[in-house]
Amino acid sequence: MAQTIIERERHTEESSAYAIAIRQLETAAHYLNLDRSLLEVLKHPRRELIVNFPVKMDDGSIRVFTGYRVHHNPARGPAKGGIRYHPEVTLDETRALAMWMTWKCAVVNIPYSGAKGGVVCDPKRLSVHELENLTRRYITEISMLIGPESDIPAPDVGTNPQVMAWIMDTYSMHKGYTVPAVVTGKPIAIGGSEGRLEATGRGVTVMAHEALKQIGSQLEGATVAIQGFGNVGSATAKLMHQAGAKVVAISDVRGGIYNPNGLNIPALLHCAGRDGCIQAYRDAEPITNEELLELPCDVLVPAALHGVITGHNAERIKARVIVEAANGPVTPDADEILDDKGVLVVPDILANAGGVIVSYFEWVQDLQAFFWEEEEVNRKLEKAMRRSYEHVAQTAEQNKVNMRMGAYIIGVKRVAEATTIRGIYP
Ligand code: GLU
What is the CATH code of the structural domain delimited by 199-351? Predict the structure, then answer.
């Protein structure tokens, strides 16, 4: 059989994010005894759009940026997934992230299929005006894909509610009327949902609670190290602190801080997002991002980028529980080592699903033009997360696999079933 373009590329990038995503899917397919041709369908993204587009910069020059939007498998509903602005965005990574979104939506049983987008850029080096120009032009370039019934973007690494507002406005300007449901993670003033900003962190906190309960411990009094202090990392620190956990370490791209007696999280939240916030904090020891991962603690929360816990450092991890707030922070090699060490890993496609769950609530509210109170959003989110955790833990136990494979078995099975029932057109 002829190789597809993707198979040829994958061959040369064995340890890429997409190669890892395929490896995880193949293992799940083995447990599910999945038909080979169905597995082939699930391995491939349905569509991938690459756009190169010009942006007017503040100094009058014009710069060309590259962006992507990938749809994985459309079986269960409209495509859903964030948009990432980062200098290391690649098509390979966007493919992996789109596939992970498919399983994530299926694991927590919301009616979406996976998508992801990204622009290769460093948002920190762009002015607000340049960022707006870039966003509006990128959205125009991918406008043949997005829409409230076809593909609904959301925030991811390097994007925020303001970027979502520009997306909503750009799409609406083209349509000639306001379409709030085209994007989620918007500011409340234009149809965003209460609770969306903290939703991923809230879900991560619920997962830490459940995982600690499973190993006979509790979140109150537990020590927590968090890598990353962006939207997800800072919300997690806040909510863990409120739940009585002791946050002993946090970090951002520049490095981290550690105090075994706990950090003053309310003080740090005041400057979250500002350059040098963490480094200016006095009552702690400076550490590197690598050192943070290896600290003695009960719960480790990687909330930055993928591939940070690998076969090289997994042996030195001392946490009892890892809750994957980022997408893909633990590689398959590391998974094996962590399993042997008895570390309980709550996988990304479950652990960070709080964001897309409340995105789903936001979309439903926008479509109905009827908005819920924060208490209702949080209650529904926590219920969905707890129910999903229980289902994953049970599936893992029944199949004698770890939580990641438990989640994959549920997610892949649901997508395979939807694909089979719908049939192949024509
Ligand atoms: N980017 C987030 C994720 O990876 C949120 C996606 C969404 O809300 O659609 O889950």
Answer: 3.40.50.720
